[in-house]
Design goal:
Blueprint: E1 8-13, E2 18-25, E3 28-35, H1 40-55, E4 64-70, H2 74-91, E5 95-99, H3 100-111, E6 117-123, E7 129-137, E8 140-150, E9 164-167, H4 170-173, E10 186-188, H5 193-205, H6 228-233
Parallel strand pairs: 1-4, 4-5, 6-9, 9-10
Antiparallel strand pairs: 1-2, 2-3, 6-7, 7-8
Helix pairs in contact: 1-2, 3-5
Length: 238
């Protein structure tokens, strides 16, 4: 995509409890927020088409369809990938998968641009968190620790001094995180469609777009639920 070309993008994420959809046409944006995860599939396509209509864009005019590929809620990731594949294939435009933890870091960075290093933490349910570490230098993002899933107590410490925490895991697991993380700034953040749009131009320029059939989820964890015995062992209900 030439640097001078108008930016025409559809972006969506439904990896958390929030569905976030946005369309960008040049410097203008249109946004929608709704229920995510299992409910996302009921609203995603309708919201996307409504925003495209407001922006005066057809699907085949888009430079790319940007989506949060994971990690995150399994049902939400499947809905996002299915929508990205279907829309991209039907319109003949590329899909751009973006790590949701990178979008979390970018969402926090939008409000705290002076912080260059971020440890992104998302609630993974099942008493675990997703974690990854990123650095942003002059608007260029670099992953310094690949996404992983672990118990809150085992979240790795940031490699860089001056790092901050970004994400939605603090309310659920804040007291269980390593004590060494306690002094670090905590910025509530989500993998929003707005964050995806901010990341998209550089990723497109770097050749990260894929054909529709390669718009795949990043799961990290293969299990979707605990067994009854495991729930009971952790104090849950049968």
């Amino acid at each position: 995509m030439p640097a001078s070309a108008p930016v025409k993008l559809l972006a969506f994420d439904c990896s958390t409890e929030t569905l976030s959809v946005a369309v960008q046409h040049g410097s203008a944006q249109w946004r929608f927020t709704g229920a995510g995860s299992a409910q996302a599939s009921h609203q995603l396509i309708g919201a996307a088409m409504s925003l495209l209509g407001r922006a005066g864009l057809a699907l085949d005019e888009l430079d790319a369809i940007v989506f949060g590929r994971g990690p995150g809620a399994f049902t939400g990731l499947r809905a996002a990938c299915a929508a990205a594949q279907g829309l991209a294939f039907g319109a003949g435009v590329p899909a751009l998968p973006v790590d949701t933890l990178l979008a979390v870091a970018a969402d926090a960075h939008l409000r705290h641009p002076g912080t260059r290093h971020w440890l992104a933490l998302l609630d993974a349910r099942m008493n675990e968190v997703y974690a990854a570490e990123y650095a942003c230098t002059s608007g260029v993002w670099r992953c310094t620790r690949q996404p992983l899933v672990c118990a809150p107590e085992n979240v790795p410490l940031p490699d860089a001094p001056g790092a901050a925490l970004a994400g939605n895991a603090f309310d659920a697991y804040g007291l269980r995180l390593p004590a060494a993380l306690a002094p670090l700034q905590r910025v509530p953040a989500q993998p929003s469609a707005q964050a995806l749009l901010r990341l998209a131009p550089a990723l497109l320029a770097a050749g990260a777009a894929v054909q529709a059939e390669h718009a795949l989820p990043l799961y990290i964890r293969n299990r979707v639920a605990l067994t009854t015995a495991e729930r009971l062992a952790r104090g849950g209900k049968a």
